[in-house]
Amino acid sequence: MVNAPVEQQERLLKVQEADLAIQRAERTLRSLPEDIALAANAEAIENAQRTVVLTRAEVSDAQRAVAKTDDEVQAVRARAARDEERVAAAGVSAKDVQALQSELEVLARRQGELEDVELEAMERLEAVQSAADAAVVELEKLKEDRENLERAREAAAQIAEESIVAARLDREAFGAGLDPALVKLYERIRDAQGGVGAAALVGTTCQGCHMTLGAGDMAAIRSAAPEAVVRCEECGRILVRTGA
Ligand SMILES: [Zn+2]
What we know:
Helix content: over 70%
Strand content: 5-15%
CATH topology of the largest domain: Helix Hairpins
Order of helices and strands: HHHHEEHEE
Number of helices: 5
Bound molecules: zinc ion
Distance between the termini: 24 Å
Structural class: mainly alpha
Number of strands: 4
Largest sheet: 4 strands, mixed
């Protein structure tokens, strides 16, 4: 049986409080919501970067398609202009004029078709260009979000770190001069019992496990010397008799 002055037993409850505060702040630091948001943001940025690359490639393809049909339209126009010059020239036979005119009809149809194709290509270019622009805007927005999240994360981490420092100072102050045997017992129980090694006895209830102690256990506790370190029969934690 470990013995410790009543004052030390009472101080153990303050040590317990400080240990719980350290645990809470460390848990907060490990699971900052900003870290989860930053991971999601990083994934979104990767996706957005892929979309930017893809839509830029689509813009290049569409630009090439527009240029190609435009070249074809220009070639047909040039051919038609040459034919018209020849029709108008002096000394062309009636047979040649007829041949040239039927070619001009074919060229006019072809030009109409190509102009439709070109219009479609230009519309497609416009659509993929606006998709590419939107992708860039989205990526910029996500990068801005990242900066804001990083700032928020830093602020939250700083608060948690300050809480840890403050709780460790409390732990040191309350734990100063405690009997090493008492501390050893407390820490062994604390580590085995989910972080709580010492609890107050309030009335007949252990504040560690919240069980009500039986009459026999209570009688044994009451008859124990004040310096005797008593334990809860239910959970094994150190019971501090606070008089409450
Ligand atoms: Zn208990």
